[in-house]
Design goal:
Largest sheet: 8 strands, mixed
Number of domains: 2
Strand order of the largest sheet: 21-22-23-24-8-27-26-25
CATH architecture of the largest domain: 6 Propeller
Shape: elongated
Number of helices: 2
Structural class: mainly beta
CATH topology of the largest domain: Neuraminidase
Strand content: over 45%
CATH superfamily of the largest domain: TolB, C-terminal domain
């Protein structure tokens, strides 16, 4: 009995020591105070940040981050002004690492950054109409010289096509395996890159022969929707408000922007086209194209194409979805179609 009592006492002492030596978390010791805290911010804003030291813990130095990007450091806990001028839009995390002796603590606070500008509104006029295969469930559209390349979707009916945009003739068609649902495409360095929807796989083709030469897998992006390129990097939408930047050599995802107006985020970003330094984006189930700043995600303009689908025939009324933007170097001129539309339109856009 005496031995049993001694064992219980030893165990009690051990657990007391363990509990008392438990390391405090950053949130238990510190908090972030933002002067004049707002529900949302814009790149035109700045604000003062300080550390609330709840238990007078020694602070040797501080490091400040937006998400994982380090923005500055300090050796004292004094008010620091954070400038948002060059920050990306969206839900951002302000993180602070606090160094105290041999310990490092981390605390964070979420902030939402909206665009500081109201999008300009654009309308259009039709310049020309061309025939388009009504059986093509258009997912991607891009010119190389005067040849139009198209990616189509639907399981058991997805394809990559090389076409004559004026006549609708399909010069060559590569069918995808039945297990793949084709999505967006883009062309860079004599290669065609094509996405699939939920299979997290992209395909690479030789531009001249359409021979498949490789494949790639997605990283953190959830699905494959649209693609475009700026001559150096590839941009990929995934059906959310995000557009990812891919390394053109490795196809690794190197970061993303989130698409926001001055009042809200834009979800379901679909087919993409690079036009004079901006990303033009179809928004799924919306009869409009968003003009996006690729540096921060701000919607700078919206092209209203509401009446365009009234000028086409479709194989299924549910497929009256605007999707397909191509640019061929003509000022303020786009080539537009949709899923299973029987027409391709050449349009001129202008501000309302």
């Amino acid at each position: 009995m005496r031995l049993f009592t001694l064992v219980l006492s030893a165990l009690s002492f051990f657990f007391t020591i363990c509990c008392n030596s438990k390391k405090a978390t950053g949130a238990e010791l510190f908090d972030i105070a933002i002067e004049t805290m707002q529900k949302t911010y814009t790149p035109a804003d700045n604000f003062k940040v300080s550390i609330v030291n709840k238990k007078n813990t020694t602070i040797d130095s501080l490091e400040y981050f937006f998400d994982s990007r380090r923005i500055t450091s300090s050796n004292t806990n004094t008010d620091l002004t954070i400038h948002l001028k060059n920050e990306k839009l969206g839900n951002r995390s302000l993180k602070i690492k606090i160094y105290s002796g041999t310990s490092v603590y981390e605390i964070s606070k979420k902030i939402t950054v909206l665009s500081s500008i109201k999008p300009k509104l654009y309308t259009y006029s039709i310049l020309e109409e061309y025939p388009h295969d009504i059986n093509a469930y258009t997912q991607g559209l891009e010119f190389k010289n005067d040849t139009l390349y198209e990616s189509t979707g639907q399981y058991k009916n997805s394809s990559l096509r090389k076409t004559n945009y004026k006549t609708g003739e399909v010069y060559k068609k590569i069918s995808l395996d039945d297990a793949y649902f084709g999505e967006g495409l883009t062309i860079l360095n004599e290669k065609i890159y094509q996405l699939t929807w939920r299979e997290k796989t992209g395909f690479i083709y030789d531009l001249n022969t359409l021979r498949k030469t490789g494949s790639f897998v997605y990283g953190r992006s959830s699905e494959g929707w649209g693609l475009c390129q700026d001559g150096e990097s590839i941009y990929k939408s995934d059906g959310t408000q995000r557009i990812w930047r891919l390394n053109a050599n490795t196809l690794n995802e190197e970061g993303f922007i989130e698409i926001y107006t001055n009042s809200s985020k834009i979800k379901s970003v679909n087919e993409l086209e690079w036009v004079n330094g901006k990303i033009f984006a179809n928004i799924y189930l919306r009869d409009a194209i968003a003009i996006v700043n690729p540096k921060n995600g701000a919607v700078e303009g919206v092209i209203d194409l509401t009446s365009l689908k009234n000028k086409v025939s479709v194989s299924n009324p549910k497929d009256e979805v605007l999707n397909g933007i191509a640019y061929n170097g003509e000022e303020n001129t786009l080539y537009i179609t949709g899923k299973n539309w029987n027409k391709l339109f050449k349009i001129k856009i202008f501000e309302k």
